[in-house]
Amino acid sequence: MARVGTAILAGFQPNTIHPPMTSIESYVRGNWHPAQGDTRPLHDPTTEEAIGEVGTGGIDFAAVVAHGREVGGPAMRSVGFAERGRWLKALSQAIHERREELIALSARNGGSTRGDAKFDIDGASGTLAAYARLGRDLGDENFLPDGPGVQLGRTARYWGQHVRVPRPGVALHVNAFNFPCWGMAEKLAQSVLAGVPAISKPGTPTAMVAWECARAIVDAGVLPEGAFQFIAGSTGDLLDHLGPMDCMSFTGSAATGAKLKGHAGLVKTNCRVTLEADSLNAAIVAPDVDSDADIWGTLLGNLVTDMTQKAGQKCTAVRRILVPESLVEELVEELVARLEATVMGDPNDENTRLGPVASTDQLKDVLDGIQALAKIGKLATGTTERARDKGCFVAPTLVVANDIDARIIHDREVFGPCATILPYSGDAADAVRIANRGGGGLVASVYSNDKSWTEQCVLGIAPWHGRIWIGSDKVADQAFHPGMVLPQTIHGGPGRAGGGEELGGVFGLDLYTQRVALQGDQGLVGRRFGAKAAED
Questions:
Q1: What's this model's pTM, rounded to 2 decimal places?
Q2: Among the options 315, 392, 418, 457, which is catalytic?
Q3: E strand intervals along 80-205
Q4: Which of 53, 81, 89, 300 has its CA 20 to 30 A from that of 535?
Q5: Pick the catalytic residue: 212, 276, 413, 501?
Q6: DSSP three-state, residue 230
Q7: How many whole angstroms separate alpha carbon 40 and alpha carbon 491?
Q8: For this structure, is 315 an active site residue?
Q9: Using one digit for the tens of pLDDT, what is the confidence trace for 288-327?
Q10: Residue 276 annotated in active site
Q11: Non-local CB neighbours of 299 within 8 Å, separated by 6+ positions
């Protein structure tokens, strides 16, 4: 067994309450349906106790899709952005009102500490609120001018204008287990504001948390019938019924995403598909950053947060830490000290900062990954085995690579509290080469006070990343950590990260709207559908 920091092995008192199994319901066609058919169990990852089950036996998925298209869609598009924004504001408030219930469930069903649960739940209500404000700003129209108009003829009388209009289909949202509230609300905020009904399918391991969030949405009573449906369990033949005006937004593994994207029915109808998949996010430390720099403390704090928040189960968490060879020893020493001071244990304990990973399957996958990484490097702290005899606990694990070009470092995402130090020359071109070996990422973070070095690095990695967080002494005390997804900027990335884009304010509506070119009399096309007309 590899080295384990002693401070993280805090005392653990498991929950001794054993409530009965809960049937996680689906909400379709205006009614709640209990789990039935070929059900799957849900567990408390702290105790490994079975606590619930999901199953979608008896649900007619063709009727679910039709209900969204024929009932929900027309009702949503009968009003403009501002009214749909008011719906989102009410949903934000409804989720916030159930915050304590959701926090308790997050500990029981997801192993989340109170801080981690709040990160998920407040992310959900905050994103809904942000898109509510965007709806208010877009006004009462049901279309979006897309760029300036253009003269098409010999005079300005013949005019062209691009606009975006809601697509008359449904949106299937396939969400990941790690953010059962935020993931669902993030996708819902964009589709509702665009006027497209959603069918939401949560990640199974934490479906109980997602179910409570879905109940808050339904109980709020603000969405038109058919605007929101919730599938707890298998989606059956649902994909067979999606057509050219429908879309699917998926968050999860690259392998599953590729399988779904290649579904014969989706390919045949050219159904829109966007993916957010694996990402070996990199933190890149420039040679000018040392312990005397203000950004040094921010760097250490961000690395610890990314490795331990949600037990490292974040799509934006850092996996590869590029450190100039001259700084490796000092950074590893300070980072290990902080990681070993992290209290691991029962997520219900207010002193706990690191809970278990979400399931036994997740535990096995993470430990398999750590064992593979340990073969090409040295464990500075952590373990290659489970940290407790009971529960899905993984110690925060830091690997220092012996071979920074080893394929596994850049090919396999260990989705848990684990990261790898990559000692490199300090040259910006070298950093670009190494970071881009990940094949496409959601977010990279760059730490430097050298503007020339930063520019070379940022422009070199930009084509391969959806977002680049740039840290310097000037923003050391102001910036959110790189793992924080903000609704104002794009969330997504190219290549292995899925190739999709979400959020980014109005850009988040792109998946759900159709760009169309209008050509005609400027008095109609320009004045009615142009940007100035929308502002008026």
A1: 0.92
A2: 315
A3: 144-145, 150-151, 158-166, 171-174, 198-201
A4: 89
A5: 276
A6: strand
A7: 31
A8: yes
A9: 999 999 999 999 999 999 999 999 999 999 999 999 999 9
A10: yes
A11: 283, 285, 289, 331, 447, 471
